[in-house]
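request received
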Amino acid sequence: MRDFSYFRADNIEAARNAAALPGAMLLAGGTTLIDLAKCGVAEPSTVIDISHIDGLNAIDVTADRAVIGALARMSHVADNQQVKSLFPAVSEALWQAASAQLRNMASIGGNLMQRTRCPYFRDPQNFPACNKRAPGSGCSAIGGVTRGHAVLGVSEACIATYPGDLAVALVAFDAEVDLGERKLKVEDFFLAPGATAEREHDIQPGEVITAIEIPGSAAARRSTYIKVRDRQSYEFAAASAAVGLELEGDGRTVRDIRVALGGVATKPWRVRAVEDALKGKALSEDTIRKASELAMEGAVDHGANHYKIALAPRVIARAILKLGETA
Amino acid sequence: MTVHDMKHAASDSAHLEAVGGRLSRVDGPAKITGAAKYAFEQQLEGLTHAVLVGATIAAGKVSAIDSRAAETAPGVLAVLTPDTIMELKGASDWFGNPSPQPTYNPLAREVSYSGQHIAAVVAETFEQAVAAAALLKVWYDETPAIVDLSDGKAGDGIPIDAMTKEWGDAQAAFAAAPVRICAAYNTPREFQAAMEPHGLIARWEGDELTIWEPSQWLDGMARTYAEWFGVPFENVRLVSPYIGGGFGSKALALAHSAVAAAAAKMLGRPVKLVLNRPQNFTSYGGRAATRQTVAIGADRDGRIQSIVHRGVNETAVDGMWVEPLGSVTSIMYATPNFSSKQNVVRVNTVVPGAKRAPGENPSAFGIECAIDELAYELGIDPLEMRLINYAEQDPHTKKAWSTRQLREAFAAGAEAFGWAKRPPEPRSMRDGHQLIGWGVAAGTYPVRRAHGEAVVKILGDGSVEVESSSIDMGQGTYTILAQTAAETLGVPVERVSVKLGDSHFARAGVTGGSRLAGVMTGAVYKAAGQALDELIGLALSDPRSPFQKLQANTLQVRDGRIASPRGEGPDLSIAEFMAAVGRDRIEAKGDTLPASTTPQERYKNYTTIAMSIPHTEGDWSRYSWCAHFVEVRVDEDFGTVRVSRVVSALDSGRLYNPKLAESQWKGGIIMGIGQALLEEGIVDRRHGRIVNGNFADYMLPTNADVPDLQTISVGIPDPHSSALGGKGVGELAIVGIAPAIANAVFHATGKRVRDLPITLEKLI
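response:
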């Protein structure tokens, strides 16, 4: 038996203290941790159950900002009327994620900690080499089946795709993650693999996510999340885009635009090159498509994932066109 | 076989309960409430748990296994390796051919595919067994593997002469034809993906073995166990009242079955062994990957002059599987010249197996796409193309069709779908960013026949029991056999209880090839008829019978009551009558075998497929038929294909229960959507290993991928196909769906995708 100790934290301080222990892992909705434990990837020595801590599941939304407690369920946030009206891309990203059953269990904090679906990462028995699991052991994916792997933010150590949807919308709108002692941009919270593929998040032992905060903006209010996938439901993105748009009074010139990509990068991927190319420009389909191509600067494919380089700009363009049409 | 008078069977078909009525599944409430007990849910005293360890190489030898850490781990009772597992005897194959090897070891020393079982750990709890299995250290001598059909080492394979079908001079006629198309069509390795995994509980009591295992063939699997362990067939009891999906995969006792039964024997305790989800992708074969080339030569008016077909399917290094790729090619269209040949290529995989419509399914993908290509080449409507070349008789055997309502299927489907409004040009329909396409394809499946037996008991309280070792894996056997017995005996259907899934019941052959309903309704019809004859005979002749003094020639039973045909004299419920004559039961065993059948032949009939009756036996060629009309929407930027409408018109002959037949057809259509758009076993070429062996990564259609499906029955009773006039249902509807979708994708986009599945990168 793989024994571990179970600790139920009744308050956030207790959770932080326990989370400082070596080999400790937090349990909230359990949809990632239990799955990874079953396939032999997660082998915690201590499981700290934070799901009973009071006050961490609040959803507080104003025009200025949304503050979402780490234990709020994905389904509750997705269905929140103010989130829908003030941050539609956030609601849409959540609705298109996972399945109804998973959304009812999974927490927002845990969602940020969701790990890659790289099949090599998830199969330690057959593929011992994985720099995420065993730093320095190599990457089994490079040279293997790469249809779902990343083309942006990759390194020689790792090409695993960040699989989530919510965080793509969060980085588009400059959301922050609250770790108690410090807050940082969600965009900075996620780490590209570089030479340290095992470090996926800027989080230290003893730190616990308590909330995420999303600043309100005109671009967030007019936003959308488009997810392209092999099947219509319960599937990770082949490519996805969170886009927010604010137009000048003329109804066609871009005042502010936010663009982030999912399903194609090693972390939720903000594409400022596209934003910069469109700010101050009048929207036209041609302008939008040309600017969207800039998102693929520096893209590197590994054969079977080459299609993502063609697909991702089209997803961005579709999202911008959709928002432009609602002007 | 005996062709029974169908007038009686069909007379009350307006009634829900009668044969032909839309009775809901009688096993439904037990399944919905959780009362239905599946194989792995048996609670046995002293149950132990076995976990298998699979090879992490695709080819080579196991050079050493260090099991010391596992042996001393908590709760561990045994570590079984190729060296320590008990020796079994070689068992005959499903045709009844004796094993070429006198002994059998279900744990491999020589590895011929990744995931092959090389060891097992048995412990007091499942968790202990899992933990201990992870402690095994295995060393291998690895040799190069042949990964798949496209592997440079694979070669051209082995010609399978039995698959060759030729008439006329196909090559010359093709060369001379004024219009020609030739294209290659590929289907990937696919898996049955039943929700319930494979596995079993095995218990020995002395030399008697009881196995709880989901099974499509209790008698065949019981024979295999008996032969492995050298015990009499009667000593093995297989129990399988409910099956959580089989799709062809659960008809044979497999290596993991042998490991569990051997472990139980060695330990003297019952053993439970359930394959985990990844093991369900490597422990038994799915549909073999296939390659076909189809060349068609035609006149300018669209009449086919020649079809030249070549096919290849993968098989295993250590086992043979032939996926008959010319099966539909050779019968769908009239052609004066024809040639089909097939090779198989050995690769390092578990031996492929049966998945819903093996052979017909990939065969139809080739010919039904090719005929569409020919239609575009000629500028003829694809539906018209099919009618121009309609086969009025079996083009291969030249025999008459028993029934072929395919023309009716085309007409009914086209009408319901609105095919006449289809603009011929590709890319001619759109809705915003979505390109819309309409496609058509036909499908067929042979009427496979066999013999079965059943026991029907009329009990003292007037209720009826039907017993058979056949099974219900969701297709509705419980329901239609209850309907058959109720109608034949004249009792309300709720007074009939059907007991299936126990090899100690009256015997049945394999539930596969869409044959069970035809076989078993015939057997129950016969047994129930015998029971009824005995009941009436008793009523007319027994001195204690109130009917005896009537001096009537016959009596009738309706609604569970016995009376004379004209109503004079007594009117008794069956229970009242049984009490009057002092009987607690009337029991009849009926079978569809000729009376001259020897016991050896009977055993062979139920435990092998050697006595299956050819579908072209005698004067007739017997098939089910269907026509699928499909609408797809393809996003012009993203390449994503979604099926938005399906209308299928199907000829399965007479339907014993239309509601259940429609469910099976719809299940086949949904499985076909998965095949067309999603399903593919993806192999890491360096390791020869399936990397998407789980339900997250091996994609199946979700509800959101399935539109409203309209099915239309165009069948008529076929007296040459079964006792009650039905033809096969279960496999028919998947045949032709993938080509209908591929043809619709071409109509939408102008792109011809000939490699399944049609994923988005093939269209952007």
